[in-house]
Amino acid sequence: MRVRTAILPAAMLCLLLALPTAAASFNNRTSSDAGSLGSDILAPAAGLIAACGATITLDWTATADTYATGHRVLRGTTPGGPYSQIAEITPRTTVTYDDTPALGIYYYVLDAYYLNWESAHSNEVLASTGTCAPPSVGGLVPSSGPKTGGTSVVISGSGFVGATAVDFGANPATGFVVDSDTQITATSPAGVSVVDVRVTTPWGASANTVADDYTYNPVTYYVRTDGSDANTGLANTAGGAWLTIQKAAATMTAGDTVLVQPGTYPETVTPSNAGTAAGPITYLADGGVVVIDGGNTRCKAFDVAGTGYLVVDGFEITNQPDCGGTDSAVDINNASNVTIRNNIIHDTGRDAIYFEGTSANGLVENNLIYNIDDDGSTPIGGGSHIFRNNTFAGTITGWALESGLGSNLFENNIFWTAAIQTTSLGTFNHNDYNGGVLTGTGNISADPLFVGGYRLSHIAAGQGSDSPAIDAGSDTATNLGLDTKTTRTDTITDTTTVDLGYHHAV
Questions:
Q1: Most C-beta atoms within 10 A of its C-beta, which of 255, 305, 355, 489?
Q2: Each residue of 123-165: pLDDT tens digit?
Q3: CA torsion sign, 315 to 319 to 323 to 326?
C-alpha cells in the first residue's frame, strides 16, 4: 500500500509559520470562517478617551497582541451603535486619531485587527464637536411671549451640541434646533407665569439662573354689552369683545385679566380656572358703573368654587334672591386667596360675601355692603381672612358678621348697621361699631355721620361737622392703596392717615 504525503504550498506554509505560536484565532465579523484557527481572541485596545471640540481627538492604549496590524476607528450617533468604520490606523503603535465630523454628538469604539480578523470593541466613549460639559444658559431673546406659546426663542450659552431636550418649566419646547455649541433656537410651548428654560445634553442639564427665566405674558380680555361670545375677546370693540363675563370666566388662566365695560350683566359668573400667587386671575370693572344683576332669579353673582387666587374688583352687585342654604351674592367655597375689592353689594336676599368649605386667606377690601336681607358676611371656611376698609350699613336683617374663626383680622371698617354675632371671630383694630367699642386697638363707637351715599361728613367739603371716622385708621391711605379714592362729597382724595370705611372712586 502506497502512503501519500501532503505537500503544502509554500505561501500557506509561510502564513502558518507567521501566526502566533499560541494557536491564535480572532473574532472575525467580516469572514465566514471566523474562529477557525483556535480559541485565543485578539485583545481590543484599552483606555479609549476623547477630547471634545471642533476636532475630536481620540487616544488609547494599543492592543496587547503585538501581531495585530493596527486599529480601526468606528463611530456612531447612538450609544451602543450601530457604528461605521471611519479610519484604519497603522501601525499598531499609533494610538491617537483626530476626527472632524459635522456638528453633533458621537460615540466611538476601536477594534484591533489582523489580516481579516477583528477584536471585540474597546470601551465606548462619548464626544462632541462642542463642549463636553453640562450646558449653561446665558440668555433668552425674547425672554417673554404669549401664554399660547409659538414664540421663537434664541437661547444663548454653552455646551449645547447634542442637546436632547429643551424645556420651558415643566413643558418641552414644541421644537428646537441646535445652531451651534453656543446657540439653540426653540419654539415656546403654551405656559403660564415665569418658568426656567432648561437645556439637557448627555452631560446633564443646565442649572437654573435668572438668565434662563422666561415670562408668559398674561392676556387681557374685554367684555361689552354689545360684544359677542363668538369674538376673540381681545379687543375693546363690538367686533372684538365678548358679550358675557362668563365667557371670560371659562377662558382665563393664571395671570389673565378681563376688563368689563360699563353696563348691566344679567348673569352668574362661575370661574373655571385658578390663578397663582404670581399670576392671579382678575375680573375688573373698567370705568363707569358695571352691574351684575341677579334679576331676583339668579342666586349668585360670583360662584367661586374649587379655584383660588382670584380678584373681583369694582362691580356693583345686586338683586340676588334668597335661595336658601349658604348661597350668597359672592359665594366662595373651597377657594383660597380670593380678593373681593372695591365693590358695592346691596339689596340681596342672602349674605353679601360668604366663605365656606376650606376657603382661607381671603381679602375683603374697600367694599360697601348695605341693605342685605341676611348677613353682611360670614367669614368662616379656613379662616385667616382680612376685612379692611369696608362699610357695612343700611338695613342688614341678619348679622353684620356671622360666625368666623379667631384667625380673621378686621381693621378700618365701619359696622354701622346690624350687630356682629360674636367678637371672637377675629381680631378687631381701628373699627367703628354701633354695638360698642370692640376689644382691640384704635376701635371707636361713634356715629360716622354718613352723607350722600355713605360718604363721610367733612367740614372742608361743606358739611357741618367732621365724621369721627376721618383719619382714624391703622395706616396711611397711600400705604393701603386708597390715596386715589375719597370718602368726601367733594371727591378730594384721602392722602393722610386713612379714613375708616369704604372709599369711593373719584
A1: 355
A2: 999 999 988 889 999 999 999 999 889 999 999 999 999 899 9
A3: positive
In angstroms, the CA 204 to CA 160 distance is: 11
Residue labelled with grid coordinates 471566523: 34
Question: Quick one: 284 and 417 in the same domain?
Answer: yes
Q: In this structure, are 334 and 438 located in the same domain?
A: yes
- Confidence band of 495 (pLDDT split at 50, 70, 90): very high
Phi, psi dihedrals of residue 211, rounded to the nearest 5°? -65, -20
85: CATH = 2.60.40.10
Residue 300 C-alpha cell reads as: 349668585
Tell me the whole-structure pTM to 2 decimals.
Answer: 0.72
**373-401, pLDDT tens digit by residue?**
999 999 999 999 999 999 999 999 999 99
Q: How far is CA 7 from CA 12, 14, 56, 463, in A?
A: 10, 13, 52, 137
SS3 at position 107: strand
Do 331 and 359 contact (CB within 8 A), yes or no? no
Q: Are residues 212 and 224 in the same domain?
A: no
The verdict on 199 and 147 lying in the same domain is yes
pLDDT at 40: 56
Longest dimension (CA), the chain: 153
